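Hello again, I could really use a second opinion on something today. Take your time with it, there's no hurry, and the full record follows here:

___
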Amino acid sequence: MEALFKNLLIAGLLLTVAACGSEKKDYLDRMDEEHKDDAPVENAASETPQSAEVTEETVTYATVNGNEITGYLAKPEGAEGDLPGIIVIHEWWGLNDNIRMMTRRLAGEGYVALAVDLYNGKVAESPDSAGTYARSVEQEPALDNLTQAYNYLTENRNAKMVGSIGWCFGGGWSLQTALAMPEMIDATVIYYGRLVTNKDRLEKLTMPILGIFGAEDDGIPPSAVNEFEAALNDVGVTNSIHIYDGAGHAFANPSGNRYKKDAAEDAWMKTTAFFEEHLKE
């Protein structure tokens, strides 16, 4: 009987792993479709200025599988005292100039913002390479990377409060960061990222969630967003979920072909107000 139980347990674990792998493949296949005509292009919106002058530097914040991981850190110029921290998680293009710009904008709002690198230095310039890099990211090393980012902000930069934010690929990992550190992350922002609707997993979240999505997004469709919102409400997680009409996937990326100015600017105002409320004492 004991041997039978062990075999059933192992079989159940294998089925769970297979299901997660299948779900990841399905999600990444949808992202391939969403981004097939997209590219990280230069345009006027790509250089949106921050609201205050900031300083920037490249920092080594983690060691994963024996490899040192470097990120991009920005903070307000001349800031005195300890600042709240934000973990900034890149889209599936990687830690590129757009993410550095968004990191500076967040820093300009009064934070020490650390853009992490889940691709270990690789940056995509085409949908094909972006898909390849995204598929190479494994759960355990990625969460190790993000946990060390949290530790870097709290231990090396004295952040007393820490939030997370990510877009697309990074939006999903922002949620995964919250799930992995439910007692440590103080506020989580998800821009059209891969969602979790399992109530048993969501009920352990203790931080508020801000979700930003597009009504025309076939990769993260409104039906999935509504299910996510309902699950959060059912388990008592404070949340603010917004679905923008006329906006598709990656609508807030000013360096992409899908940028929607009005929706992106409104989402940014909601993002800064959310972090202001939950990260600043």
